[in-house]
Amino acid sequence: MTDQEGADWIPAGADLSRPSAARIYDYLLGGAHNLAPDREVAQKLEAIQPQVAAVARRNRAFLRRVVRFMLDQGVRQFLDLGSGIPTVGNVHEVAQAVDPQAKVVYVDYEPVAVAHSRMLLDGNPHAEALEADATNADAVLKSEPVQRLLDLDEPVGLLAITLGHYLPEVRGVFATYRDALGKGSYLALSHLTNDFAVLSDPRVAETMRKTQDHIYPRTKDEVLALFEGFELVEPGLTTSANWRPDRLSAVVDPEEDGLYAGVGRKP
Length: 267
Ligand SMILES: C[S@@+](CC[C@H](N)C(=O)[O-])C[C@H]1O[C@@H](n2cnc3c(N)ncnc32)[C@H](O)[C@@H]1O
What we know:
This protein is α/β, with parallel strands linked by helices and 267 residues long. The protein has eleven helices and eight strands. The protein has a single domain, classed as 3-Layer(aba) Sandwich (Rossmann fold), CATH 3.40.50. Strands 1, 2, 3, 4, 5, 6, 7 and 8 form an eight-stranded mixed sheet that branches. The longest helix is centred in the N-terminal third of the chain and has 21 residues, at 52-72. The mean pLDDT is 94. The site of S-adenosylmethionine (SAM) has 24 residues, from α1, α3 and β2.
């Protein structure tokens, strides 16, 4: 039994007994699509590091800036891997505000994230949510929504915003997506690391190990390796708040900012 049993955002048959990154992140962002086990983990993380919700909010702001940047570069189609539970400023909202024809495919393996995305996208012919494991890159790329909505010969904005650190093996996965994308495509990612003070406490990874999404923090060189085949755009690999901050962004010391963040262009 769950505290929200019967809520319309809980997909029938989904096993929500184990906390998930999607719902923990939703809680940290002030969302309502989370359950008691998720909140328990989120609160443990906040007890270890009170800045964890601020890190999540800055990551979300990085995502919005990245989408606007890619739109400015002429990108009109987005593949959002590990897209999470919809919250303020979703990719299709930012993109379709600029171009109502912009295409978005969201990919997540968490049933609440996918069900809620589908509810939100009902009646939107240019955006769809795919329930899939992003590590099955071939299956994602051949999936019906990707084939129907995205033209992979044209530039695509590939988003892997706080996805990589949930994957034990990442380089091959990212390389498969890269190889499938046309010239002028972009990769944007943010990634957890122990290089900065704010999230380096080993209890963060330990706490996440009790959920269905383990985390694998990576070093700067390991994160840079994910951009193989892409040319980093200015300012290179930095932290989320420090990637092309806008007038709404505060200046944040990388030690507090915590997540590596960058954008690369496929030449
Ligand atoms: C912290 S959330 C980030 C959501 C969004 N990208 C953002 O940054 O605002 C990470 C998401 O990645 C998803 N995820 C983790 N591993 C995945 C995998 N192998 N395939 C698909 N989704 C995955 C989780 O379910 C979760 O929704």
